[in-house]
Design brief:
It is a single chain. The chain is an all-beta fold and 311 residues long. It has one domain. The protein has strands spanning 16-17, 46-47, 53-54, 67-68, 75-76, 84-85, 117-121, 129-133, 154-159, 162-167, 182-187, 193-200, 219-228, 231-240, 260-264, 273-281, 293-302, 305-310. A four-stranded antiparallel beta sheet has the order 15-16-18-17, with no helix packed on it. Strands 1-6 form a two-stranded parallel ribbon. A two-stranded antiparallel sheet has the order 2-3. A hairpin with a 2-residue loop joins strand 9 and strand 10 (162-167). The termini are close together.
Length: 311
């Protein structure tokens, strides 16, 4: 069958808050003629070591609202909007930043801090940078419960489903090939960008049916969206995986297994929203007999890779 494409409505920004690393992700589905990738979230006040409240940075959404349209049917797919959370770090350390491009330390160059420490956002007020301890050098393969659980050059962000280390970057070439993009802008509780605080999306393969890989254990690679420099950007990113197989009902993408996406069935099955197989165009070799890989309009493209769902 010839897949018909639907139109994409847009993309929302997501917010992130610093502290216990827990935010809620939600999804909604409203029938429409388009494919949509969006994210929204609210920042949550946290307490610093002195008892005062601060707003945490925000990470771009991890899960897109996706919408596809097979022949003679409209399909509205809306995976959960995700917000991200980052925890408060230990007090600032005194450092000599004379050789660093920024003072007291630099996020990308990772200079200006004593040996064994990392330069990160100053989470006490989200103004400038600060040195922090590193108890575990976590990277993209690792979940985290605090900022000290990520290596130098990485920051602990996530949502209610889980938190992981993401890498600071200056350009796409700093990120994991072949799909990584330097487009995940961290913002404060007022949705204002934190200068210089941009992280990589993953280079993972969303069609893979095995968890882990370049993602943390028991996490999967999924379609997502971000807003960077005012423009909507398609990305793939790591997110906790569920047990739901193709056709299983879902209310959020983290209920679906690796290789599947939670979208609106639009009357195409017993469940209003269900886990659907992610496929790559052209060809859609991931789809079963009698199915076609239905793309998005505009096309969902990540560094030249186009994705859709099997219908």
């Amino acid at each position: 069958m010839n897949p018909a494409h639907a139109s994409r409505l847009g993309m929302l920004a997501a917010t992130l808050s610093a502290a216990a690393m827990a935010l809620s992700a939600c999804s909604s589905a409203t029938p429409s003629d388009g494919a949509d990738a969006r994210r929204a979230a609210d920042a949550t006040p946290i307490s610093d070591a002195g008892g005062g409240e601060v707003d945490a940075p925000v990470d771009a959404p991890r899960l897109p609202d996706a919408m596809v349209q097979p022949p003679d049917a409209s399909v509205d797919a809306r995976p959960p909007d995700a917000s991200v959370d980052a925890t408060v770090v230990p007090p600032d350390a005194s450092v000599d930043a004379s050789t660093c491009p920024t003072s007291p330390c630099d996020l990308q160059a990772q200079c200006g801090c004593p040996g064994g420490q990392a330069c990160d956002i100053d989470f006490t007020d989200l103004v400038g940078n600060a040195c922090r301890t590193v108890t575990t050098p976590g990277d993209e393969n690792d979940t985290c419960a605090s900022q000290s659980a990520c290596a130098a050059g990485w920051v602990c962000v996530g949502d209610a489903a889980g938190t992981s280390c993401e890498e600071y970057c200056d350009a796409d070439t700093d990120c994991g090939a072949p799909r990584g993009r330097c487009v995940v802008q961290l913002v404060d509780g007022s949705a204002q960008p934190i200068p210089g605080a941009v992280t990589c999306s993953s280079g993972c393969d969303p069609t893979g049916v095995v968890t882990g890989g370049v993602c943390p254990a028991a996490w999967k690679c999924s379609l997502a969206g971000a807003t960077f420099l005012g423009s909507a950007v398609d990305i793939v990113d790591c997110t906790p995986a569920g047990a739901g197989t193709v056709g299983a009902g879902c209310t959020g993408d983290n209920q679906c297994a690796a290789g599947t996406l939670c979208i609106d069935n639009d009357g195409g099955g017993p469940n209003p929203t269900a886990c659907n197989r992610i496929c790559q165009l052209p060809g859609g070799g991931q789809c079963g007999v009698g199915q076609a890989c239905v793309g998005f309009a505009p096309a969902f493209l990540v560094n030249g890779f186009e994705y859709g769902i099997c219908r």
